[in-house]
Structures are given as structure tokens and as C-alpha cells.
Amino acid sequence: STARNQTNGAASPAAELDALIIGAGFAGLYQLHTLRDRLGLKARVLEAGDGVGGTWYWNRYPGARCDSESYYYSYSFSEELQQEWSWSERYPEHGEIRRYLDHVAAKFDLKRDIQFGTRVSSAEYDAAANLWRVRTEAGESFSARYLITAVGCLSSANIPKIAGLESFAGQWYHTGRWPQEDVDFTGKRVGLIGTGSTGIQATPVIAEKATHLTVFQRTANYSIPARNGPVGAEELREIKANYAAIREKARATINGHPFDIAPESALDVAEEERLARYEKAWETGGLRFRAAFRDLLTSKAANDTASEFIRAKIRGIVRDPKVAEMLTPKDHPFATKRPPIDSHYFETFNRDNVTLVDIKATPIVEITPAGIRTTAGEIPLDIIVFATGFDAMTGPLLAMDIRGRDGVALRDAWAAGPRSYLGLQVAGFPNLFTITGPGSPSVLTNMPVAIEQHVDWITGCIDHMRQHGLQRIEPEPEAAERWVAHVNEAANATLLPLANSSWYLGANVPGKPRVFMPYAGGMANYARLCAEVAAKDYQGFVLG
Ligand code: N01
């Protein structure tokens, strides 16, 4: 790529870097900026895509927009940046987020140190040289003191192995690997598999274009109306005037969202008051529905009231009672799987050109040249959309062959599930940092908050090492074991493990170990722990 040729010094492929960063999404861009521009390191990013954006580079499916609100789904590290950028909608669409990240890359002159179109295939720690030796699929090699993964948590597509897919005569797509050009659904019979956040965003948009849309649902899902709309000029002024307070609040909460969680239990108030609160939260829309009461994720009885409220809404919206019943979630409490938000999802099933197929009742048998055959018969299709999610958190890390000391493969070290200290480092893998890795709050939060905290911590750690002439950092195995136990304990203090088909547990990928991967102890609490560890001379880490 042209970026490669513009890079000073690093142009020779085996060039030795201080830091090599994998991925040019929110995490990789900011990490490059801090290491290069604040610490003065020789740093470089390798990125598989042909542009910046990470998640937002690949997820261009119809209806793809962020479920966090635009004004706080953004970087906080530059006051100038947050003042000069203006979001157009309450929930930014994928293209707008890419434009934002392109603007960031231009503003901080990042692209000259990003090599696009470059997928890392392996990375091996060379103990004698204390360097990471990194190879790309194209056969290039790099060496770096620090290896930092910024590969995202939801970037390894989960495409179910359904017999006959290769025989399908039409087109098929996974939402997380959407083509760069638009897909035209006009005049097409479309089948969509999957009703997670992605399927729920895509369904109403595809239904408007397609001749017919068939949604294949395995698990009915709760969803809250997003209530998207333009951001008015006055609102924008107010946000910009209050940014310091908004950011501070986001960092002080459990989920990195800058809104208050009600102090009451759902069981503290009379039924009438409770319903009025849910009604108001439903009208306001978005992920803040969860904040209507403080205990929706810790008390099953409290959660039942919210789950039942949403079920009643679904039955009220969907006109055909049989379809309404199929769409009503019953097998897990609200928000124990990542709750989707939507724009007219349930309403879409009132359209004449939309059919819902319950594939628990009538499972998919195979894909044929003409469509999808379930136990109830064949449904002819021109396009199949897989909204079937991701091999989350560990998938993108294990897709590369990462080997630590003595050639130990990360795949083997994590055979029974991921084991990290603070989600930041793995024992036996010196100088490897995993931004938003398993064992960190990441996917349970508003991602940019988690990302900035990790990048700042890693930058501070590397700065500390350089100041003190230290060459190596890795966790004590006991510290990692304690952290893994704590991650489990934190999950078990919530209702989250009750959703036994959740990707948080790896349950969506056949054969994947069932381990609750993200840290559910809360973002603010986690950030405090990380800061304490650093202040106590990196307690639990071995430095040398
Ligand atoms: O993936 P999912 P997603 N046969 O894993 C079904 C983030 N996100 O892409 O529930 C048939 O949630 C599966 O069924 P089941 C967000 O964190 C953010 O929707 O396993 N069906 C489920 O219905 C989100 O949680 C945003 O029974 C199969 C669906 O496919 C995460 O990404 C937008 C199947 C997968 O749901 C992932 O969301 C979108 C099979 N073999 C996503 N395998 C924004 O903020 C799976 N399914 C914008």
C-alpha cells in the first residue's frame, strides 16, 4: 500500500520497532497516537482492512449503527477533537463513525504509520532478543519490543456450518464481513439468520427493500426502541459545553455510559409506579432502559418485572398472536444477553412481506441451491444474510498463531478458556498487551471508555518501564489465576450467567469452552483496580 512507502525508517520489512500494534480501530488508532506522539516510540500499526475503523470498517450491513449514543461513543482524550466534531444523529450510522475515525487519523497524522491490507498470521516471542517476531499472511516480518493487540472483541465472524452452503446459487453474506459496496435487495427474496443486535438492526431495513424477507429465529430476544433522531443544534451546544462532566460521569459508572442508574430496587416501588417508570424508559429508549432500577441485573425478581414489561410490549405491537408468541423471549432474563435496541423491529413482523420461522420448532436441515430447507419444507431465497455473530473476545486473538516463551501457543494456554491478568496480559507472554482482552470489562461497557482506559494504562506502563530501564513485563501466574477466579466471582454476583446460550460465555460457537469472558465487576471499579496495581509498583506483574 502507499502508506507503507511513506513511512520513514520502517520501510524495510524486518525493521525493528519499539511497538507493533495490530488493528486500526478505536483502540489501535489511540494506542499509536499515545506511544508515538506522547512517548516518542517507533510504533507501527498493521491492519487487515484497507481503511481505518475496525468494527466499523467491516460492519456495513443495512441498519448498522451504534447502540451507544454518538456524543459519548467517541474519544475523550482531545478537547479540541470533541469540540470540533459534530454528530448528526443520536445513534451514529456506520459511515459516520468511519468518517469520524478518518478525521481522527488525519488530525493526528496517524496513517503514515499504519500499513493497511496486512493481516498478521503469527507472532512469536524471541526470549534471547526479547523481541516479538511477527509475520503477516503476505510473508512480511517485523520485530518489536512490545506487541499490542487492538483486534476488537467482535471481529471474528461466526458462520455456522450448515450443510449445502457451498451449493447455494444465490449470494450470501455475513454481517460482520459486509462487502464494501452496497448490496441491493430490491426484487429479492432474502433469508436472514440470527436475531441478536445485528439481526434486529438489519431486519426492518432489509424488509423495506426486499420482495420478501424470511427471518430465521433460534432464540427470541428482548429489544428496546432506540428512538433515533437528529441531534439538534441546541442539544449539541449543550453537550459540548458539558463535555468534561459527561466524560467524568461515563468513567464513574458500571458500564461507561454517562447516565444515572436509579437508586431504587424495582421491588421497592408499588406496581403502578414501577410500570410508569418502565413506560417512561421505553419512551426515552436505548440502552438506558436498564438503568430504570438499580437491581435489574442482580435480582431475578426485580428483573422479572422488566422482562414481563417488555414481553407485554411485544404482544401489544405484533398483530398476529402466533407470531407475537414466537417473538416473546422466555428462556433468559432481560439483559443477560447483550440487549439489542431497535428501530421498528417488532413492527416489521406486521408487514405482508415478512415471515418469521422458529428454527427451534422447525430446524434448518440444509441449504439447497434454491434456498433454505427446514424440517417444515424449503424456502426459496436469492440472498442469505448471516447475522450469526462472532467468535467473541478470544476468536480474533486465537486466529493468529501467538507463541510466548518456550514456543507455548496461546491456543494451548487458553485451551480451557482465556486466562489473563486484568484482561491486559497473559502469563508466559512477556510484553504482549491485549487491549479490551478477555477478563476486562470491554463488551459490557461503552467501548471507547474501556479502550481509552486500557490504552492509557498500557502507555503508562511502557513509560514506567523506559524510565526505570526495565525490559520485560508479564503477570505472575498466581496473579492471573486469582484474576480468573475474580472474573468468575464477579459474573456470578450478577444474573449474566443465567443466559446459557450467550456469546459472553462462548456458548454460541460449537466446541468453544464455556467460560464467562468479560469482567462484570464494573468499569469504574476495574479502572480503580488497574490504577492501584500500577501505583503499587505493578503488583502481580514481574518486571525485569
Ligand atoms: O450476534 P449475536 P450479533 N443457527 O451473537 C443466532 C455487538 N453489536 O452480531 O441466540 C441459527 O448476538 C443466535 O441465536 P442464539 C453487541 O455487543 C453492537 O447480533 O444463539 N441461528 C443469535 O440470534 C452484540 O451483542 C451493535 O440462539 C444462529 C444470532 O444468531 C454483538 O455485537 C450492533 C446460529 C447471533 O446474535 C453480537 O451481535 C450489533 C446457528 N447456527 C452488534 N448461530 C451496535 O452497537 C447463531 N445464531 C451497533
TrEMBL record:
Record flagged with keyword NADP: yes
An MF annotation (GO) of this entry: NADP binding
Cofactor requirements of the protein: FAD
InterPro entries per the UniProt record, alphabetical: FAD-binding_Monooxygenases (IPR050775), FAD/NAD-bd_sf (IPR036188), Flavin_mOase-like (IPR020946)
Keywords, sorted A to Z: FAD, Flavoprotein, Monooxygenase, NADP, Oxidoreductase
Family to which the UniProt record says this protein belongs: Belongs to the FAD-binding monooxygenase family.
The protein's name: Cyclohexanone monooxygenase
Organism: Teichococcus aestuarii
